[in-house]
Fold each of these.
Amino acid sequence: MNPQSALATRRTFLRGTGVALYLPWLESLGGIVHAAEAAKEPRRLLLICLPLGIYRDSLIPKQSGTSYELPEYLAPLADLRDRFTIVSGLEHPGVSGGHAAQARIFTGVPSAERNRRSLDQYVAATLGQHTRFDSLALSAGANDFGWTDGGSLVPAEKSIGDAFARLFAEEGAANKAKVLGEIGRGKSILDHVLDEARDLESRLSKRDREKLGEYFETVRATERRLVKSEEWIHQPKPQVNSKPPAPFAPDEIITNLRGVCDLTQLAFKTDSTRVITFGYFRQDTVAVPGVNVGYHNLSHHGQDEGNITQLKRVERAFFDELKTLLTNLQNTREGDATLLDRTTIVVTSNLGSGNSHSNKDLPVLLAGGRFQHGRHLAFDPGSTPLCNLYISVLNQLGFEDKSFGTSTGALKGLVIS
Amino acid sequence: MRTRFVFSLFVVAVASFGTEGMGRAVASDVDPQVTAFLNRYCVECHGATKPKADFQIGKLKVSTNQADAENWQLVLDNLLLGEMPPKDAKQPKPAEVEQVTSWIQTELSRAAAELKGTGGEVVLRRLNRAEYENTIADLFDVHGNFAAGFPDDLREHGFDNNGATLMLSAAQMQEYMKAADFILTRAIAPSQRPQSVNRTFTLHDGNRRAIEGARKNLADRLAKFDSLTPQEKANTLKMEEAAKANPDSHGYRFPVLDNGGLRPPKPTDGPHLDAVMTVQNYFSGEPQLGLPAGRGWYRVKAVAYALKNDGKPTRLKFTVHEGYSGKLPKAESVFAFTDEQPREVEARYYLEPGDRVVFTIMDGAPHSQGRTMIDQPGPFIAIRSFSIEGPVYESWPPQGHRNLFGDVDPVKPTPEKAAVIAAHLAPKLFRRPVDDASVAKYRALYEKFAKTMKPDEALRSMLTAMLVSPRFLYHEEPPSGPDAFAIASRMSYFLWRSTPDDELLKAAADGSLLDPAKRRDQAERMLADPRSGRFLKDFTGQWLRVREVGVMKPSADLYPEYDLELEAAMRGETEHFIAEMFRHDLPLSNIIDSDWTMLNERLARHYKIEGVAGPDFRRVNLDKSKTVRGGLLTHASVHAITSNGTVTSPIARGTWMLEKILGTPAPPPPPDVPAIEPDIRGATTIKEQLAKHRTVASCNSCHRKIDPLGFALESFDVVGGWRQTYRALVEPKPGARAKLSDGPTVDSADEWEGIGRFNSFQEFRELIKKREDLVTQNLTNQLATFALGRAPGFADRQSLKTIATQVREKKSGMKSLVLDLVSSPVFTNP
């Protein structure tokens, strides 16, 4: 099929779903996507972390295998049972420090080493070539999960409203011209400072020269960004019927989460990006019915019944929204598949227990993509790195990597269909 | 277990192996007592000839390679397990073993820390966020949250200015470009000096306006009375009645002080009568002063005094808000009035168009229905006037503009002007002389831009390039070690957290900074400058972690006394305490115990100390027979950051004390040890749980060092209050608020290994006085870490030891310590 006809077919099809949109990954023939790439089906990755842990008994089934009893949090997901897998007993070897492990949840880099290269950023370097945005770091209260190869934190979007505007608000012609001017100017500035950095390099010690290497890399990466935005500025942004999210109070964690989930779905649907991360977190009190203690304090429940009841309300709210997101992705068709088929979703936490701050036995819910789902894979705690799951995820996304972080191989028992 | 020690020992090998026989079999930098031990118990079998198990004591050395660390680890494991020396050999006493294992453990964890950092040399440091902001503020007088989008700087060895950890990314580079635009827009002065406006507002104006407004409103309503709804008619009649009863003031606003008494205001009241605030928060607003004429510095003043206050302070607060954004105020000042003497208070704020200055009355009676304001009990605050003036310029063009352009008029730029500007600015921005070739390149860049842009824009683009240059963002230091200019930057980013001023650059240019004595003089000058306040606050906040106070809020059910004012006061005590020690160079023993502390009213109430009124911190002498307070370990800030919101953590507190006070950090927990599951149901105390933990040998080796120090602080609760029993919550009925009750009794007794037993915090504090040497050495090392942006390496150790010993012997304080450090060779090591 040549790209033009693919475009025509898909666009017609998607118009039929009720959302008017463009498919930039197909439409941009101006050198952004090669025809061969365009014919490939898009694969996507969504990484979600709950940095305060997930109350174990409510998520991890008592039985392993396929015929497990659905625990409390999974009850709303009963209809999707064959679209997700629960994995228990995994951990990141050498990663410790309670909350400090949060930044390493998708990197797996041992605590003794400097953090770097997260799964999302690694994947985004390839998948991001097809989309306006390499990746999107959203936040329902937290996101310090994305790390560059060089060891820099990828900052999260400040607000869902701003992110929505970046994705879908069309710039006026005057503004576009201005932005183009800025891009051109930026490139000249980068050329100049690169030259200056070369001069500087010759005056530095070996150790400092190595460190300055990151400046060179940064300048080149910034240039690549500018080139990319220059290419994309001529592409119209996708038009969506949804309204930009309304502002909300900081404690409205569910509204926040809902906004993030809606934007995730829209971003995938319009193929604005193929890699998204977000966290569900709040230090203080949350506007969840029946909850009057701060979320973080609840996670340190101290086995107190009252605390546990309230904690479950906050976490249950997350799984209710997750259900909506998964259902929406399943109900959105793209070509001959659904968005859920083409999106791998990992929900996990850096804490196996919020109460003890243990970084062992991390909870995992893996959904979507082309995995054979429907089972609880229970590993003996301490036996298997979480990075093994990441290898399986990478393979499923079409990456041929044999190792990532502390992996020792693909995750046993997880089959790609 | 072993994998966590895959580090080498020290950085620099000073190995001189024992080759002259068995008497001196161990490298010379090993603790002499350890050497003696090894010689006595080990060398016989593990000597140079035919060593058993092929393990030679002589090969134990302090160096950079991993095998050495592994060897030490082997020694440690065998000693801890009691496997060595073998049973049939000469047996050491447990105390001897303890001494050696302690030394090895300490060295291994210290080596690990050193090597995780920079390998003992300063690594090309980038300006961190605070340094960038301060630099811009000092060079260009530009303020605002232009750095808010920068990714967070990571911390290493407790500080966020570690060269090796300060990374850079494309996201950050783009933020630098954005910030440059923000900065230049503000630093470049308009061609015309903006008119400075001075507006004064009295509450009479407010009264008059309110009275006239009420009168007009009533007249309007009466004029169209027939068309009103029945409800509106009823209201209007009520209003008419009120107006008749009080024709002057029409239902008055602020009472007026007339002949010593309060009465309702009249439209004819002259400005010689002061209006009086009687109700708390009633007046919380922005007087009609108009918005700032343009961005810049504004002087905001009030003239006020207290009335009927019984010696209690009445407080007035100024806050600056970004429009009606609902964000937290971007600046805030609180003033307290204690007597009837009118006083002018003033604050200076950098305002942007759209900013609002709001005045709030913090004290007075709560508003109550059915009472006129005149009836309220005190305290009152009488307000004569508010005023705002600005933008205020010390000079024209403003200093920031002149720092940017020198004497060049940037209007209608030319390539020649651009070159002069670059030649003027580059040395300031890059903190060292800049050669002609670099300037020529900037000129060429300007010319390149000028082909497609207006000259103004081309000039701005050139300046943007300078602001994202690696020479601005990084500290350049020659390969042979810091030259005088690099030393100037080290000094200013240490003591001011900002760029060197002209005088310091001059002292670099004439080479005097290479002379330790002259360096000391410069440091003294710098410490007398208000910019040194940034150093104290930043250092204290990070060293002791008190800037984290409030991150984890205490549970409102368990600690209802906690509020934001207390939270700020906790941080305030520690910051002011260190600043006070610094200012007067007080002996470092004050860290452990002091007969004074820094308090304001809120914190004094929390500590149950009487006689402290008002929001300002001041030094308060403590009656040690009545209060436990005194020394850092009694600061509520410390107790708060080492607790989660519901329970205190002896482990967190013990770890904090080892790291932050004693400087002997514990290694991280081994990977195979289960964490403790806190249980607050009241059945077991944390002490009982930890006791169980310590029955596991692998836990015990570290926890016997950590836990006792934590238990010593167990009498301080989550918010730093003194307690005899734990707080517990009575099981609430569904929907009801939980009730507090007394839980189990707190037990803070334990044994500090090698030092002694203690039965209370007070006894522990006496014990820690025996280790003042560690405390002093630790502070010295912490300061050095902060000063150099790296952990001290082996090469620094001797100098740091000398500095600490001197300070202790002379009973001098932090200021001396800082001056000694700046003038020592450590400060100029590579």
Amino acid sequence: MSVATLPVRRGLRLGRLQTIGVLFGVLGVVLVGYVAPNIEPTDKAFTFEPPPEPLTFSFDPRTVIVAIGIFFLITAVLSFVAQRDERWEPYLRGALIVSTILLAPLVVVLSLALSEAVDTNIVQLVVESLRLGTPIALGAMAGLWCERSGVVNIGIEGMMLAAAGIGFTAYVVLGDAQGTGWLWISIVVAVLTGGLIGALHALVSVSFRVDQIISGVVINLLALGVTSFLRSQVIVPRGISTGTSTSEISVPLLSDIPVIGEQLFKNKPIFFLMFVIVAASWFVLFKTPWGLRVRSCGENPHAAETLGVDVIRIRYQAVILGGLIAGLAGAWFSMESQGGFQDNMTAGTGFIALAALIFGRWRPWSAFAGAMLFGFTRALGTRLQILDVTVGDFSIPSEFWQALPYVVTIIVVAGVVGRAIPPAADGQPYERPR
Amino acid sequence: MTTLAEAPGTPAGPPPDRLPRIVRSYFDLQPVLVPVCAILLALAVGAVIILLVGENPLTAYWALLRGMFGSWDRVAASLGRSTPFIGAALAVAFAFRAGLFNIGVEGQLLVGATIAAWIGTWGIVDDMPGPVAIPFVLVAGIVGGGLYGFIPGALKARTGAHEVITTIMLNSIAVLFVRWMVNSQDPLILRDPSASVPRTASLPDAARLPEFVDSQPPLHLSFLIMVGLCVFVWFVLQRTARGFEIRMVGANPHAARYAGVSVNVVIVLVMTMSGAFAGLAGAGEISGTSGYLSPGVFVAVGFDSIAIALLARANPFAIIPAAILWGSMLAGAPLMQQETGLSIDIVRIVQALVLLFVAADVIVRTVFRIRRRVVGGFEEPRFGAEWGATA
């Protein structure tokens, strides 16, 4: 990479901020001027706990929509002010962040207003977002470890799928898909499968220095073939289509917290593990010497090697670790979310995890936030499908809601994130100088 | 490492008049030798897997081979099955040459096919003679696929969004949107109300491509169109100034920029053309094979086309045999399943292994003791190198 085009680490520039601000302004005008006046003035409500004693918060959707619309308009005005006077730029950035966050309640309120339903359970929606965000967050952590060490991994999807398929096959063969003991052993099998494929990715892309993206594509193809083969040759002949999945655990004390405790702290094990892994990834990557070595391999492997870091070895370790995490995400699919395996059941989650990673600019907590954003769009999709949102006479079809996470991914990768800068040596094979 | 882009001095993708030179020496055989050995190795590993599930690999492979080329009818069916793969793989390979990784071929093919299936049922097509109606439908596919390829190209050039992610997302969006348009009964969009299953209305006979052999799937004119497309792509890449720019961007975008090439223009152009090739392949299937669109027909064509393009090392002429191998294996697999009870997914595993061994040619070279030819000049495009950032 030549000096003149060396990427400069920078955030969004003012010009781009203004464009986004203007877009919010247009949205605000539409909301205040067109949407709000055309909505029926019926009260809607958010509920916060399951019956018998629901805590409800009722409101007029028009008021909420007008309020959000006005905030968008303020953001737009700020973007013009900031263009003339740079001192206003921090305020604009703040307003843009708030506006972006406001999009979530806006979509919920708007769809609620357009449907027949009167109320919707918000805590459930949040917990469902976290639950559906679990494999995405785990996938993003898998990608984080690989890419921080300088190895692009688009094979996360395949790692997850293979782990889901081989893990469940092990469960079927060992314990007829019954029993907690075999279930946990199978989850370990799934995790190890992920690690094994991580090792394959490392072998092909680190040792053989094959293009890392090609290696990832091979993993995806191979996983699809192997798992479909296992399903038709091993699982289907045994006539087992479903098995027991992991059961819920309640965290002592925390699960007694009113309103959120019951929903959030009474959940399944991989769900809890996900938080542990995100926190641990952050700690190990940024607070330990080994984490520093991994990051140095991703930024400047030659300098790292000069300082005595074994780049090849570190990359192997990081990619295998990433594979293990992806394996856990695979176990989530076949042994926590549903007790069973279908062909291609990961359905693009690995790629969404990569988008979450880019959204988070290769940082653990930001990537986690990105994963939750996608979890939210998925949860919202399912929720809105049930609510049956109609615009005029047109009932919005379920395919639109299913496409929502993908559309959001494109917008996020192209627009909001802008030119996210990956680790400098990401994707470049390392050849040890002789 | 052999290169995706050829070394200077060697003719690009063997042009017919230079063929004798290819067989002149052992080293010049390498581009063929490595894939052939990769196929052998993949079949060997596949045989181990077949043994593990308790079947006889020789019986299985013999059934597979007869399923592929056992009779003239089966040969035609295999070629028919390979037809869309040629165009789709060409789309991937063309983008490869500019250092772009177009995973969106599936979506572009689907959008091209959908637009072709939609425009083909317009009233005006009924009154057209065949020589007008067929190009009309094919051009519709080209435009549809081209537009759907333009989106990720423009996004990459304008915002730096990596095409791998945007094209995968666009694939899912296209699949869902087309499924809705073809399935939906209220409002009725593309669905043929008289058909019992969700599908679009059939194209009029004038808009159907002429069939050569009425096999299952049929062999039709689209096969020749696809072969012609390969020649066209070779010509563009090797014999035009724009093609040189494209290869330059693929070899080294920074150097290309210093040489005065507008990298962003090349990115948008290549993605659009790549999408157009896929769209043409999709329209050819609608007009040639089925005559209508049913949802879920082009599943996995996208990933297959990537594999074929890699197998052919992005060489437009090598794509033809690679696609025929790929398509015929898929066409022959059902006979193997019928005779041995083996799942057709074994073919998928073998295919993935072929790709692995072609990409990681170190393995093949070690097993078969093939020496490495010293190459210089253009570097192999590295898709990973520009990951997440712009060129």
